[in-house]
């Protein structure tokens, strides 16, 4: 384990509430994750991933299921204890799995002691740790809106002092004031706390949104093509904070951070790489927003490749805990091509738990909805086997379990060489053994409509990827001589020729020369 493991490796996101319950309360926990690490790495039949990203497991009133932190330095009892975390970390490391944890610096819970102090009076020393302002004749201080749809204004009036506080998510998630040096220093301390415990890095929540206009000027009402820019996110000054964090991270050997950066303009997004002095990567969410089309995906990848500075390392992801699972968005029949795309592009792939078995969003009956903005369907329990609660829990699970366990579970797919899980495993292994896939150059190849083809090349290796995005067979001529099939998404195929008919939704990976 050394060098730029995060460039070479494959990441896997775990939503701790939903991976494995170990104590029979229907909610997943850290000992549960530890018990399931073999699925991820350490055995011949493991998936073979290199790192996990754990969504928050800190103390929290759970209004946003952990993204409302009331103590950054402790584990919520629902998830276990700090000792459980240490065990998880040690067991993961023993299997060659790195662990990054979610850092939530934009806001705390309203139950965090910092906010409890801050709201207590206008002259409390922590008043300025959050953003407080007088209203405008009974209305909020400006027109900023919560980024959660349906919440309305990003401001709530606090009875105690009559002032309003800022919250870009729920009222229970007050925004910290990132202009305040005390806040910056406190978050450095939080990072060091986890780095000292041995974590390999961070996924940073809302990394583009921390710093807001200090004069709290309202956002422009009319925006054309992203201009004029909003004043409550993506300000130049946020990069100062990222450089500061990078300095903290670099005090420790071999650590990294990936930022959740929702900035649609790719030219602005690549600024988050800085001069290799900010977070190692901002997430690229552009793939995840693409409708299923060869031209769309090719367009995004090519633009991204064109704009990235030389030192910048790309990444790719198709699903996470905030968006409808891609097997639902695109259709399960596309999950194989999607897997081949994700694991053969240039850059670090991030998988979301369950995608390796083709989990889809589970329909949630109205009386079981628990998330304020309706993300429950993509957060349902991991499907381990076909037992009543999918092997996830012995109790009632916090969210309903899928109905398709006979097909879509680890147990059903593990021993089946034709399963999606087997395809993921093979793709991960091929990637690990291939310089071209891990580190090689990317170049798009000409192909007909509906097909996305590219080559990945390293010094002594040339691989070709051809992905049929359509539901129809596609005849094509591989303009690459002397190719041998490495892997097809169709388990029935065992060879290719220069003139080739790709099946509907088939992708192939071939070796040239
Ligand atoms: C982004 C996280 O991914 C999401 O789940 C959360 O609700 C918001 N940030 C607020 O922390």
Tell me what you see in this structure:
- The strands form 5 sheets. The chain has an 8-stranded parallel β-sheet. A 5-stranded antiparallel β-sheet has the order 14-15-16-20-18.
- It has 3 domains: 5-105 and 181-213 and 239-431, Glycosidases (TIM Barrel, Alpha-Beta Barrel); 107-175, Oligo-1,6-glucosidase, Domain 2 (Oligo-1,6-glucosidase, domain 2, Alpha-Beta Complex); 441-512, Golgi alpha-mannosidase II (Immunoglobulin-like, Sandwich), CATH 2.60.40.1180.
- The radius of gyration is 23 Å and the shape is globular.
- It has helices at 5-8, 30-35, 37-40, 82-94, 113-120, 181-197, 238-250, 266-269, 294-307, 326-330, 335-344, 410-414, 420-432, 435-439; strands at residues 11-14, 51-54, 58-59, 71-75, 98-103, 132-133, 155-157, 164-166, 201-204, 256-259, 281-282, 315-317, 348-352, 441-445, 451-458, 461-468, 474-477, 483-488, 499-502, 507-512.
- It has 513 residues and is α/β, with parallel strands linked by helices.
- Residues 64, 67, 104, 169, 205-206, 260, 321-322 line the site of 1-deoxynojirimycin (NOJ).
Side-by-side strand order of the widest sheet: 11-10-9-5-2-1-13-12
- Strand fraction: 15-25%
CATH class of the largest domain: Alpha Beta
CATH-level-4 superfamily name of the largest domain: Glycosidases
Largest sheet descriptor: 8 strands, parallel
Rg (C-alpha, Å): 23 Å
């Amino acid at each position: 384990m050394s060098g730029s493991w995060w460039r070479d490796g494959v990441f896997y996101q775990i939503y701790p509430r939903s991976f494995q319950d170990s104590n029979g309360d229907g909610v997943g926990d850290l000992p549960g994750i530890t018990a399931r690490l073999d699925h991820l790495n350490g055995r011949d039949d493991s998936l073979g991933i290199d790192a996990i990203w754990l969504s928050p497991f800190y103390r929290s009133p759970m209004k946003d299921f952990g993204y409302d932190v009331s103590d950054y330095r402790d584990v919520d009892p629902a998830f276990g204890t700090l000792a459980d975390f240490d065990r998880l970390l040690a067991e993961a490391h023993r299997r060659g799995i790195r662990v990054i944890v979610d850092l939530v610096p934009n806001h705390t819970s309203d139950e965090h002691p910092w906010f409890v102090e801050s709201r207590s009076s206008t002259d409390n020393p922590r008043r300025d740790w959050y953003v407080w302002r007088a209203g405008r004749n009974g209305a909020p201080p400006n027109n900023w809106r919560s980024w959660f749809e349906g919440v309305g204004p990003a401001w709530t009036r606090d009875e105690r002092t009559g002032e309003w506080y800022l919250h870009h998510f729920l009222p229970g998630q007050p925004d910290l004031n990132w202009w305040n040096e005390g806040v910056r220093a406190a978050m450095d301390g939080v990072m060091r706390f986890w780095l000292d415990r041995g974590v390999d890095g961070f996924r940073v929540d809302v990394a583009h949104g921390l710093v807001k206009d200090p004069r709290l000027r309202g956002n422009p009402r009319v925006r054309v093509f992203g201009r004029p820019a909003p004043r409550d996110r993506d300000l130049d000054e946020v990069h100062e904070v990222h450089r500061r964090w990078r300095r903290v991270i670099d005090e420790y050997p071999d650590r990294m951070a990936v930022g959740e950066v929702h900035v649609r303009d790719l030219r602005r997004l690549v600024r988050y790489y800085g001069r290799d002095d900010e977070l190692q990567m901002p997430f690229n969410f552009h793939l995840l927003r693409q409708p299923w089309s060869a031209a769309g995906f090719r367009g995004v990848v090519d633009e991204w490749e064109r704009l990235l500075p030389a030192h910048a390392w790309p990444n790719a992801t198709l699903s996470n805990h905030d968006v409808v699972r891609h097997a639902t968005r695109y259709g399960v029949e596309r999950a194989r091509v999607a897997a081949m795309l994700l694991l053969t592009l240039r850059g670090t792939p991030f998988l979301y738990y369950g995608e390796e078995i083709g989990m889809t969003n589970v329909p949630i009956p109205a009386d079981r909805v628990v998330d304020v903005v309706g993300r429950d369907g993509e957060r349902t329990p991991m499907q381990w086997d076909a037992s009543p609660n999918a092997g996830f829990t012995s109790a009632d699970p916090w969210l309903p379990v899928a109905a398709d366990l006979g097909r879509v579970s680890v147990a059903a797919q593990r021993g089946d060489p034709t399963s999606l899980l087997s395809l993921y495993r093979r793709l991960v292994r091929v990637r690990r053994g291939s310089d071209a896939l891990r580190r090689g150059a990317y170049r798009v190849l000409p192909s007909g409509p509906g097909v996305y083809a590219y080559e990945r090349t390293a010094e002594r290796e040339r691989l070709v990827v051809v992905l049929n995005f359509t539901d129809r067979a596609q005849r094509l001529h591989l303009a690459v001589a002397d190719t041998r099939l490495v892997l097809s998404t169709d388990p029935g195929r065992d060879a290719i020729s220069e003139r080739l008919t790709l099946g509907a939704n088939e992708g192939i990976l071939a070796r040239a020369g």
